[in-house]
Amino acid sequence: MPEVAVNPVPFFIVIAIYIGVLAVIGIIATRQTNTMQDYFVLSGKAGFIVTGIAYATTQYSMGTFLGTPGTIYNIGYAGMAISVPGMAFSMIIPAFLVGRKLVTLGHREGFLTLTDYLSDRYESKNMSGLLGLLMVIFMVPMMGAQIIGAGVLVNVFTGLPNNVGVIAFGAVVVTYCMTGGMRGAMMTDVIQGVLMLGAAIAAFAICLSAGGGLSALNSSLASMGDEWMSFPGANGAMPWTFMISNVMMWSLFNIGQPHLFTKFFAMKDHKTMFRSVILGTTGMMITAGLMNWIGVLARPVVGEISNPDYIVPIILQRGLPAIVACVLVAGIAAAGMSTIDGVLVTATAAVTRDIYQKFINPKATDDHVLKLSKYVTVVLGIMVVIFGCTKPGSIFTINAFAAAGLSMFMVPVLFGMYWKKATRPAAWAAIICGEIALISFTMVPSMKAAIHGFHAAVPAAAIACVVMVIVSLATSGNAISERTLKRHMLVK
């Protein structure tokens, strides 16, 4: 495939139109957003199409279109285990274990955030401050990974520095989230989901065409060595421990992701939830499967490349007319923007509702919090842009670490729903010990070696579970009241 000269004009035209559409949606969403419930969870009235696509697109990220294919490029077919198996259950497991109860609790109790649920279940208003702070600590890097991807797209299609894309895309997402909140985020997610699917199908078709078909591509890959066709992949990069870790990371551990957790509060009813699961899972499996496969096939198609994160945009740029490639690149941009908007609204809620209203100023009215949310969204957006400009690591690495940090919330959620002996001190201890363990297994070489290829999130979550049980049994005198247990544990 020949190189294609950079032509920024089509890119700017398409992106300008795309941004204009998002602006219109933001204006419409603003006119329909009148309360804090509207801003954060659409007042629990979202239908299955919106929630199914919104859950899927928020689960997608720049990692799906840039970071993950780039990682698989260096592994081969074994690399597809990074996300495809997990994606198959990424909505099913959370919906089965916690979704039905969350839909009911969200409507009955007026919960807007994950910390609303945990603070109420463990009868601890102070818990909201800790949880809100931890959410922001891990959500800023998660959003930063997406904004780094925007810089990659701008660089490939215009030749401009990556930071130009980081700043521009950050400004767009902040603007429509600041105005329309979750309504604006979920409305734009529908458009973004369609673009993502189109980009995945087109990039895969280009790969097949450029490589002479699947058989030819597989033959080329096999000629490089058997490790590209089987487990544990090139350089042994996908041992069974890491494969199991990824399945858990992108399915079971999703229960602890605050930006996905709140989607259940937005759903209209249980029927909506089940339909959302079917729609969202189907979309995720098609898109993630194609993008992962592209990562495998890109090596014989593209050849050696210094930064694998550039694979998909380069394939689109080389294989399509400029204007068509730019339209589909808007789909990749949509992957990052759809994640950022969902996470940004949730992070804003963590600051304004969980930290400010519940911990710092309990007398603050909902109207005051709603107004404050708009300013907090801007501040968080600036932090994300700064993070994106510094680029402390690869898209995949940053995204995986941030998701792992948020996944520790899964432990008190599951124990809170299914074990009446779970206590407030145990919930605190489990979260704190889980986060410390995660950082230790990630940063300390001797501890990293001790987990034998598992992702740090797996042993960290196991430690959090053990701590939850031991501390709960040791603090039985701090048992949660029967009234609270009845509200939470008997709900269906």
Q: How would you portray this structure in words?
A:
The protein is 76% helix and 0% strand. It has helices at 8-32, 36-41, 48-59, 62-73, 84-89, 92-109, 114-121, 127-158, 162-210, 214-223, 240-249, 258-261, 263-266, 270-302, 311-319, 322-360, 366-390, 395-407, 410-418, 424-443, 445-450, 457-474, 482-489. The longest helix is centred in the middle third of the chain and has 49 residues, at 162-210. The model has no long low-confidence stretch (mean pLDDT 85).
Question: What is the topology?
Answer:
Elements lengths: L7 H25 L3 H6 L6 H12 L2 H12 L10 H6 L2 H18 L4 H8 L5 H32 L3 H49 L3 H10 L16 H10 L8 H4 L1 H4 L3 H33 L8 H9 L2 H39 L5 H25 L4 H13 L2 H9 L5 H20 L1 H6 L6 H18 L7 H8 L3
Keywords:
mainly alpha; 0% strand; 492 residues
Q: Describe the main β-sheet briefly.
A: none
Number of strands: 0
Task: Name the average pLDDT.
Answer: 85
Task: Please estimate the helix content.
Answer: over 70%
Q: What is the element string, with H for helices and E for strands?
A: HHHHHHHHHHHHHHHHHHHHHHH
Number of helices: 23
**N-to-C CA distance:** 56 Å
Strand-residue proportion: under 5%
Categorize the overall geometry: globular
Task: Using the CA coordinates, give the radius of gyration.
Answer: 22 Å
> Which class do the helix and strand fractions yield?
mainly alpha
Unreliably modeled segments: none
Please summarize what this structure is:
The chain is mainly α. It has 23 helices and no strands.
